[in-house]
Each structure stands twice: as structure tokens, then as C-alpha cells.
Amino acid sequence: MRTFILALALVFLSAEANSQYSHDVIVETLLRSDTTSIGQRIVYPSFQRDEVTISRVTIPPGKSTGWHKHKFPVFAYVLQGTVSIEVENHGSFQFAEHSSFSEVIDTFHNGVNKGNENVVLLAFFMGEKGAPLSVRRDTLQSTTK
Q1: pTM of the full predicted structure?
Q2: What pLDDT, on the 0 to 100 scale, is given for residue 11?
Q3: 125 occurs within a structural domain
């Protein structure tokens, strides 16, 4: 599994991977985009200390991530199941097993598992060292009351 994750990271981080390896190595582009799933332009913020975090996210059947947002680009690959992403003021998007997507930036969204098996995502967070990977909506609302 560790080898798979490292290989997948190389695919995401290398735009011209095909020309960098032997012809025996198969490289498949899983996502190439300059916009998020709702058309926002992907811009990498300037942080004092950049940090990449790769996480395996498992959403059990009938459960959700809870409404949250990210302050920086996040990319995901669906290892198992189909995830529904509800995006505030933009409807819902479905991403099936073996698909990838650019998450929305600074926009609240909720990942929902409407299926009968776990949804498993591999998420790549392009964030800042020491900063949270996401901001929950309920945390913001409770601090502003």
C-alpha cells in the first residue's frame, strides 16, 4: 500500500512524468486541472512553511465529513466507493471509484457516503506547516455567537 501511495503522489506531482521514466513504466494521468470542481482557479498560497499532507479518509455508509472548508488546494482520489460532495451554493457532485477531483477552496462543502460500503479517499493537502487541514463550519459558528 505504501508503494501505491508513493506512486500516486508522483503522478499528482509530476506534470511530465512520462518522459522521466523508462518506457516499461506505465504512468497514467489521474487529474490535470487548473480549476476546482466548481471552476475556481487553483492558486497556491504563499506560506512561511509549506507542507504537503497525504491522508487516507474513510467515510462509513450513511456518514459524512461534516461541513468544512480548506484555505488551500486539496486534491482527492477515490480508492473505494462513490462520494457525494455537497458544495454550498453549487449543488452536489458525485465521484466514483478510481476518479479524482480538485476540492473547492475557501468554500464550505460536505463529503457524504450514500452507498452501502465505505468510501475511501486518498487526499493531498497542499497546506502550511502547523495550520489545520480544514475549518469546520460548526466551529466558526460557535465562536461568532
Answers
A1: 0.80
A2: 56
A3: yes
pLDDT score of 8 more than 90? no
- Decide if 145 is inside a domain: no
Phi, then psi, of 11 in degrees rounded to 5: -65, -45
Grid cell of 106 as nine digits: 475557501
If DSSP codes are grouped into helix, strand and coil, which group holds residue 141? helix
Q: How many CB atoms lie within 10 A of CB 25?
A: 10
State the Cα–Cα distance between residues 6 and 9, nearest whole angstrom: 5
Mention every residue, 6+ apart, whose C-beta is less than 8 A from residue 1: none
DSSP letter for 100, please: E
- In a domain, residue 144? The reply is no
Q: Give me the domain span that covers residue 98.
A: 31-136
CATH number at residue 87: 2.60.120.10
Q: Is 104 left (phi over 0), alpha (psi -120 to 50) or beta?
A: beta
* Mean pLDDT (the chain, rounded): 88
Cα distances (angstroms) measured from residue 75 to each of 24, 104, 131:
27, 9, 17
Q: Could you report the per-residue pLDDT of 22-67, keeping only the tens digit for each? A: 889 998 999 999 999 999 999 999 999 999 999 999 999 999 999 9
Question: Number of structural domains, the chain?
Answer: 1
